[in-house]
Amino acid sequence: MAVATFGVLDLSIVTDALKDVITGCPLYNELTTKFPIGITGNAPDVARAGQGCNISLYLFHVQKDPYQSNALNTNPAIAGLPRAQRIPLQPLSLDLFYFLTAFSDVGYIQEQQAMSVAMRCLYENPIITTTIPFGAATPEQFTLQLELDPADQMGRLWQATTVAMRLSATYKVSVVFITPEAPPAAGPPVKQVNVLNGAATVPFAAAGGQLIGTRATVTYRPPSSTAGNPLTRTYDVSPAVVAPDQAFILVGGGLTGQRIFISSPALAETDVTGWIDPAFEAPSDNRIAIRLPNVIGAPPPGTPAPGIYAIAAGTGSFRSNSTPLSVAAAIVNVANPPMLSPVAGLFTIQGLGLQGAIEVLLGTLPLSRTNAAPGAGEFLVNPAGTQIELRAPGGIGSGRWPLRLRVNEVESAPSWWMDIP
Known about the structure:
The chain is mainly beta. The protein folds into three domains: 167 residues; 129 residues, Sandwich (Immunoglobulin-like), CATH 2.60.40; 91 residues, Immunoglobulin-like (Sandwich). 10% of the residues lie in helices and 36% in strands.
């Protein structure tokens, strides 16, 4: 029976496996030093006078194996789904019957010696394992046995051929599976579910608009990315966390014609309708794409300092409910691969909005802020808020460490990794 996933594309693979059993037998190799022997899978009538000694291993009959029709399930149940699934396609299970004959134009001695060696080799290999020569290396296994055919039955078989009767034997090979059609692959797992199905499902969409939330997609390069094999990873975050020059989606209902406002305890309500970015996504009644300016400063021409803000929609004096938006510091000029290299032990990163309460971490290990040249485990922020210099702590374990940056309690997206020797 097949011992792997499984089956053969055509029956010649089985014939070649049987021929390999004979040609790989030590007795066969010893006999070929005395006289050459040819092995063929063709019918017995291919051996003609003048061709020396030949062994014919001919597949002359195929029948369905009655015991293995539904023995294998080629489509295992998909985890997490109900037991009632598509009925899999079953392989065609077959028994093969081979006709083994030998012929020599030199005489009966060579013919019977070749037949004796071939039968001995097949007898010593009742279970044969072969590897299917396509796709992944797939082993297939089947049994081989000499059939008990009476002489009169063999005589009738020879009467159906165009050559004179020769020394012969029949072998049964079972069970051989013909590869069925591959089952369809399982669909990928769900990556994203949008619960909001249009503005009509928002309760107060018709009452001046209502906001459900903000959402952003974060994209970064993993440390395994290289110039020759650039890689990116993405994840969605809601409420949105965005840095200067990044976009987010404002989700709600009744947003058509509404203006957008941003505010915080330290920032008076400011109209930022000009931040709407129709190139990122066309505005609709329940989704508006908004992109922050690429500079730090007072809105609307600039992005406010990193922190947590409230976004609202409205017209005139009316305002919708507010929804949170986190503005993070930007880390710029991240290379590919994103591995930060030190100069004399000093690591340097470039950014925007590096002002206020700043935290720098290597993994979960925090660094200390200093106003002088940084020592081990310290970092220094330049007065313009665009650069951080740092040194790794002494005694830190060797390995690859992610660099993490938090400004005013908002963490920036993944950017750099550091290899510590």
